[in-house]
Design goal:
Number of helices: 2
Number of strands: 3
Radius of gyration: 14 Å
Strand order of the largest sheet: 1-2-3
Structural class: alpha/beta
Oligomer: single chain
Shape: globular
Order of helices and strands: EHEEH
Distance between the termini: 23 Å
Length: about 100
């Protein structure tokens, strides 16, 4: 089954928007929605924000540590891009920037 991973970051408004966009993308593509509730807040030292969507009873699962985009997200995206070039379009998967 296809999966849509959303890295959640920012304030509560940005978190809700990222969730809504990812949920729609997952719905349209009949994919599982997975939220990364950690990676987007690792380097938020200035505002010290944290994941706040637990207050809304969101029906999706959270990413396990192996699925998160930290701490080597740029390297991981590069490797994923190179791997996708070898696959047919239908079998490709993508990692968004956060």
């Amino acid at each position: 089954m296809a999966k849509v991973f959303a890295r959640i970051f920012g304030g509560v408004g940005n978190q809700l928007f990222a969730y809504a966009a990812a949920r729609r993308l997952a719905f349209v593509n009949n994919a599982e929605l997975v939220l990364d509730d950690v990676s987007g807040f690792v380097y938020d030292h200035q505002y010290q924000r944290h994941y706040q969507l637990d207050h809304f009873r969101i029906p999706c699962r959270k990413a396990i540590s192996a699925e998160r985009l930290e701490p080597i997200s740029k390297v991981r995206r590069y490797l994923k891009r190179r791997w996708n070039q070898r696959l047919s379009f239908e079998r490709r998967s993508y990692l968004g920037s956060g």
